Give the backbone structure.
Amino acid sequence: MGKEIEINGKKFVIGELKYIQALELEGLPRNEVAKRMIQYGANLSDEQMKELTMKEGIELQREINILNGFIQPADFQKPTEEKEK
């Protein structure tokens, strides 16, 4: 099951990484981990990866990380505080 997202007018379907895919990332350089996570999470080919803009890559990485539970979505709402009288 995937989640459809739109970035820069392009639609991507992202999904959860498989456990075996996550194991394959161990020991790789940071840039290779990021590349493979996007490829696995969005099912992109090497050619499609070359066409990604920086904005698209960063947003895809963020959405894949959220979907897989690596990070929590940002919540910019601040709790209200009562002022002392």
